[in-house]
Amino acid sequence: MDDAEYAKLLDRAFSKKPSLSEGASDFVIPPVDALVQGNKTIVKNIAAIADKARRPPDELARYMSRVLAVPVSVEEQRLTINSRFSAQDLDKIVKRYFDTYVMCKECGKPDTKLESSGRGMFTLVCEACGAHYKVKSY
Ligand SMILES: [Zn+2]
User: Fold this and answer.
1) How far away, in angstroms, is 103 Cα from ligand 1 center?
2) In principle, which of 4, 49, 108, 127 could form an S-S bond with 24, CB 3.0–4.6 Å?
């Protein structure tokens, strides 16, 4: 085997190597399961989404209410939004919530918690890497 061939083999071996994921990449946010009823939108899986975020459903609901600027309520694991929204719109908001308030910006893992730190700020504390930093509250 000449050097060029050997290099090619090495190349192939390295490209086959699985990426060094540490579990963050298989983290999937559950898609919003929403249906419009009259002038309201019902999110049927708010509990599952909040569970994935490790936040109380009420917290997630409060965020969505702020962003959408409409009242919402959580009852029996369902979120009712007092206006009509598509599941795609709600997915975007949920994703933004995860990006800002769940996923650690240092290590990218979702093992975080939020602590109120007053003056309209939260402190996001990452239990995976120990990072903590301030984020704007909602
Ligand atoms: Zn982290």
Assistant:
1) 8
2) 108
Distance 43 CA to ligand 1 centre (A): 29
pTM of the model: 0.80
Separation between Cα atoms, residue 53 and residue 64, nearest integer Å: 14
- Measured in Å, residue 125 CA sits from the centre of ligand 1 at 8
Domains annotated for the chain, with CATH where assigned, are 24-102 (3.30.30.170), 106-138 (no CATH)
Residue 132 makes CB contacts below 8 A (sequence gap 6+) with 123, 124, 125, 126
Number of residues assigned to the chain? 138
Question: What is the CA(110)–ligand 1 centre distance, in A?
Answer: 8
